[in-house]
Amino acid sequence: MFIAVSGNIGAGKTTLVTRLAQHFGGRAELEAVRDNPYLNDFYQDMARWAFPLQIYFLSHRFEQAVGVASRPEPVILDRTIYEDAHIFAYNLFKSGYLSNRDYRNYHHLYETMIDLVPLPDLVIFLKGSVATLQQRIQLRHATRDSQRQHENIIPEEYLRNLNECYDRWIATFSLSPVFTIDIDLVDLAKGQAFEQLLKNIEPYLPLST
Q1: Closest by alpha carbon to 168, among 88, 50, 101?
Q2: What separation in angstroms does the CA of 78 have from each of 69, 95, 105, 143?
């Protein structure tokens, strides 16, 4: 079983990935944030660090995704390689932080990798307004997650642009089934909401057959 959890910064992906992995007795594959050598520099100077940051994420995401095929246990993935290309790299290019040359180079690497990546059985998309995302980012800061201090300087416009890219991508994504959760309306931290989610996604999963 292979589930991917997608969504913008602050949507609650890591928390949900961890809970799903615990529930299914599987492996949580988390995003390469804590040891990322570029993130702090990127948020200070996006134009300077956009390309190396995206290459770093792409290589780590590819390594994670390819590794899924060799795992005997269920795997729950924090964000997909598709989001790297169609949301984050695209947004940086559209915003002028990635040059035409760098964007073409990045996409050439992406296209050579993508056919080797296994498809998720299900993508769970956490959709939320910028206000909700900012509230959750501030909550993380309040709990003193020192590995995510860079998030406190994320511009509101950056989050808004990413949301627009997510809406554009999810509307056309057809490689795997997608189950969308509006985090403005549903708090997955509550036990009842999580139990309802498990019931909702059961028909998509190979363990249910």
Answers
A1: 88
A2: 16, 25, 25, 21
- Burial class from Cβ neighbours inside 10 Å (0-12, 13-18, 19+) for residue 167 reads exposed
Asked, for residue 207, whether it belongs to a domain, the answer is: no
Domain that holds residue 157: 2-201
Q: Give the number of other CB atoms < 10 A from CB of residue 135.
A: 12
Instruction: Note whether residue 208 is domain-resident.
Output: no
User: Phi and psi of 69, rounded to 5°?
Assistant: -60, -25
**Helix (H, G, I), strand (E, B), or coil: what is residue 6?**
strand
Amino acid letter, residue 72: P
- What is the pTM assigned to this prediction? 0.89
| Strand residues in the chain grouped as ranges (E) | 2-7, 27-29, 75-78, 122-127, 178-182
Name the amino acid, one letter, at 190: K
Would you give the end-to-end CA distance of the chain in angstroms? Answer: 12
Catalytic positions:
78
Over the stretch 171-192, which tens digit does the pLDDT of each residue have?
A: 999 999 999 999 999 988 888 9
